[in-house]
Every structure is written in structure tokens, then in C-alpha cells.
Amino acid sequence: MLSLSGFFAILLFMHLASGGPCDNVVTISSSWPGGLTASLNISITTPITSWEIDLKFSSAVPWLKAWDATESRINEVEYQLRNVSSNGVQSAGTTLTSVGFNAVFSSSTTPIITSVLFNGDNVCLIDTKTEDRQPIIEQENNILVDAWPTKYNYIEVITKSLLFYYAQRSGRLPQNDNPIPYRSDSALNDRGQDGEDLTGGYYDAGDHLKLGFPLASSITIVAWSIIDYPLGYSSAGKLTTARNMVKWATDYFIKAHVQTNKFYGQVGDGDLDHDYWGRPEEMTMSRPAFFISTSKPGSDLAGETAAALAATSIVFKTVDSTYSALCLTHAKQLYAFAKRYRGIYSESIPQVADFYSSSGFGDELAWSASWLYRATNDNAYLDDAKAFYTEFNLSDNPSEFSWDTKTAGVQVLLAKLTNENLYRNAAQTFCDSKVNQPKTPKGLLFVTKWGSLGAASNIAFICLQAADLNINPLAYRQLAQQQIHYALGDTGRSFVVGFGHNPPLKPHHASSSCPNRPAVCDWDAFDSPNPNPQILYGALVGGPDNQNDHYVDDRHNFFTNEVACDYNAGFQASVAALQSLAVNGIFN
């Protein structure tokens, strides 16, 4: 029974119970010697305009860092959390699930949270027995459904991965939707060569460049996961957040598409950007913008952006038909541009070649045509996709699926759209080769030393898609789960910041390495031996840099510890797929 005064608790997918009277509102999702990660889940039955949460521990907790709240220490066992501007107003019938914290303690046993006061009211259970409570999930439509037990808390992973994308946002941030307390408006003067407004979008990685090609690839993949695995997001209460995550990028793509055949693909000078280590809010260097046009074509960039916009048009088709139609209009124009004026974007924008040089554009032409067919059901696009598939010999078995190489994605997407053996067999060849490929001693499908976990996650997602076509479903789902669980902790440590056992503490990421303002942030922060002062929740770090599972949690090592929008895309998409399978009881 709950102690009340208007508040009720929902137990959200508990993995490591604290064993105390507040298990109903506190989920300890991970712990390690001397530390833990917990989230709070409190239902609201009366409207409020602000809130305070008072936490009391059974033993000393000398350090606590909250997310989606500000924290203050009362004494060694008591802390108070207060709302930030984006989540102070809460309506009756909603659930406050975005607040949580990392805590550090020195005792040999994990402290128990003995009291949680929400605006002065105790929201912990009077009856502390937990054995009869069933785990449940609250969806965004307020329907409660049974949660499927999984080894790792996929709901927490999805939630935190979306927080990572919040941390990467550029431009003017909405006051009512900014859960990252150390981030605010930045790069408000980003302009094209003719003064076009290029604010918004996402910063690519640990730096502050805006790079259209890898970002468009990331958005296509995430949109794909929303289309095919909406239950993965809705069961985590994050379907709307996921839609808004892709929209933040597609809003920017629409801005960058300034003319029918002119599209800005980069903002920021790579050399100047990498000479600066600090907050994006405080950048003063020149940020030139670079575009493709009829005289400087980029079929890969235009095609991938068309794919992202076409996929996003499907995401919003039943939610916001006006926005869906806008995305589709730009997708069609960019596809026509890519098809008619052929060229490699990194030759037309030489500045980007040192960062994301393209190997070709044939796969993006087939990829974008396939997505436009899925979005429109217009056979002309399917005919184009098939023709490009033959012209560019996309039946070959690629080594990866990545921001640069879409062939495996084309194969499985065309298999899904046509059910033809030509494409099904190609998808099977790809995934069979990955199932049979020797793994590292700890089980990683090692493809590249630069972002090895992102590469493995992308393959996981493609093979989860192939499994949905009933192509070796058990083997492919086991492969995907093995790769995702490697990242989540099967090696004995997590590779996701702020999640699981012994997560990375020093990601190669400028803004999270900065202390709270107004303290100065510069290269001293980069060279600091201490953990990043800000926790970059949900960021998947690059991972092992060789086939022997070698990894160092070192900010200086961009192979193992840089983060990037494209790393998280396939990872988040795969977790959403696994969560959807779990909730449906298909695969655990």
C-alpha cells in the first residue's frame, strides 16, 4: 500500500532492488563497488508547477550527481533534488520518470534509500515486501503493460541514448525541453554563404562540427527503428521523444536545403574546430558552411538525406501529416538532384574528406530510391532502386553497414519491400557471414578499430531486420543480442556512459568534459586525469581498438572513447528492436 497525499508509484522494470522501503519509486539499474545508478519513478495526481525531492540514505553518500534535476547536499546521508526549467510543470496523470542520479559511497555495502519525499510527501511503500510486485511499464498513452524480463534494462538504455542526442543538439534549445543542465543555446550565428539560416541540427561527435552525411545516415537508421519497432519505444514511454529526436535533425536538413539543387552538408572548419576544446556555447572561431550544387554534386549526401527525410515522413505520417508531407517534398527533390547530378560529396566539399570521405554514391542512390518507394508506394522509385542495385553491383557481400556503406541496408530493405529471393539471399549471405565470422575472445564482432561498437551495433540492426523476414531468425537475433549485450556489460564492464557496471567516465567529448559554468573550460579539461564533470548519459563510446578486446577509458584516445551520433544510431535502433521482441514475448 502506498503512503499517499496524492502520489502513487509505478515500479519500472527493476533489475537490482535496493531492498528498502522505497523500491517502489527507486530503481537501482546498476551498481559497482563504491557506486550506483538509480532512477526515480513518481506518478502525479494533482497539477504542480515545481517540485522538490528529498532523498535519505541508510549510510554516507559523499557524492551524488543528478540528471534532469539540480542537486544539493544537505548532509552526508541526505540530498535534495529540484526540478529544472524543462520539467517543473507536471500535469495530473503524468509520471515523472526522467529523473535519476549516480551516487558514490565508501562503505562495503550499498546504501539503502530509506525515504523519498516528493514536495514533502512520502511516496515510499509502507509495506516493503517486493516478492509479489510484478514489473510493469507505463506507455505514453498511459496504458500499463507487462514488462518482459531481460538481462539488461533496455528501457533505461533507450531513455539514456535519447538523452545523448539531447546533449548533441546545436542551435536555440527550447526552454521546456532541455533535460541537459550543462547545455544551452549555441552556434546561433551559423549561416550559409548567402546568409541562409543554418542553426540547429546535431554536433557530430566529441567536437562541434555539423556534418550532414553521417548525421543523415544516423537519422535514417533511427527513423527505421521507430517505423518497424514502435513498441520498443512506446513500452519505454519514449515514442514521442524518439520522433522529436529525428525531427530535430530533419528540421535542420530542411533549412540546409536552401534551393532545389543546393544543399549545405557541413558547418564548421574542421581544423579550427579541433584546435578548440571547450563548450559549444562559448565558441568564437569562424564556422564556414559548405554545400553541394549542380556544379559541385554529391549524390551520396543528397541521396542519404533524401532517405532520412523519406523515412521521417513515414514516422510522422499519422502524427503530423503536414510535416510528413514537407519532409517528403524535400526528399523527392534531393533524390532527383542526387540522381541527375552525380558525384561524390567529399570531392565537392574537400574540407570534409579528412573526416567522412565517401567511397561512392551507388548505394545511396539505391537506398534513397528504396526509402522513397516505401514512403510513396510509387513503383517508379522501386524500378530505380532495382536498376541501381544492378548498375552498382550491390549484390556483393559488404564487410559492414555504416554511414558510408549502405549496401547491406539496401539488400534487407528491398527484401522486405519485395520479398524477392535476389535480395533475401543477399541479406542472408551478409548475416550468415557475420554469424560465422570469428569474434574477439569476449565475443565482439570486430570490424574496425574506429568505433568498433557502433559498427557491431549497425550489423546487429541489419540482422534483426533480416530475422523479421524469417531468415535464420534465432541465429540472427542471438548475434544481435550478443553484440548489444557486449556493449551493455557482458565483458564485465559497460561501454555506455552512465549505464551499468563500471561505465566509461572519460569520454572524448568536449562539452561534458567542462566543469559547471562559470568555470573556464579549455585544454586543461581535456588533459585532466579526472572523470568528466558532466555525465554524458547514454553515449556509446568507440569501444575496443583491436581484436583482443583492448579498451582504455582515456579521453585522449579517440579510437576507444570518442562518441558520435552514428555510433548511437544503430545501437539505439537495435535496443529498440530487442525491447519490442521482448515485450511481444518473441525473444528474450
Number of strand elements: 17
Largest pleated sheet = 5 strands, antiparallel
β-strand percent reads: 5-15%
Q: Using the coordinates shown, work out and report the CATH topology of the largest domain.
A: Glycosyltransferase
Number of helices: 18
Number of domains: 2
Distance between the ends: 31 Å
Question: Strand sequence of the main sheet, in spatial order?
Answer: 7-8-5-11-12
Written overview of the protein:
β13 (136-138) and β14 (144-146) form a beta hairpin. Helices cover 38% and strands 12% of the residues. The protein has helices at 154-167, 212-228, 230-234, 239-256, 270-274, 299-315, 321-340, 345-348, 353-356, 362-376, 379-391, 407-418, 421-436, 452-468, 473-490, 523-527, 558-561, 565-583; strands at residues 7-9, 26-32, 35-40, 42-44, 52-57, 63-67, 70-75, 78-82, 95-96, 100-104, 113-118, 121-122, 136-138, 144-146, 210-211, 263-267, 289-292. The model is unreliable at 1-18 and 126-146 (pLDDT under 50). The strands form five sheets. Strands 7-8-5-11-12 form a five-stranded antiparallel beta sheet, with no helix packed on it. α4 (239-256) runs antiparallel to α6. It is an alpha+beta fold. The chain folds into two domains: 7-133, Immunoglobulin-like (Sandwich), CATH 2.60.40.290; 154-583, Glycosyltransferase (Alpha/alpha barrel). The chain contains 18 helices and 17 strands.
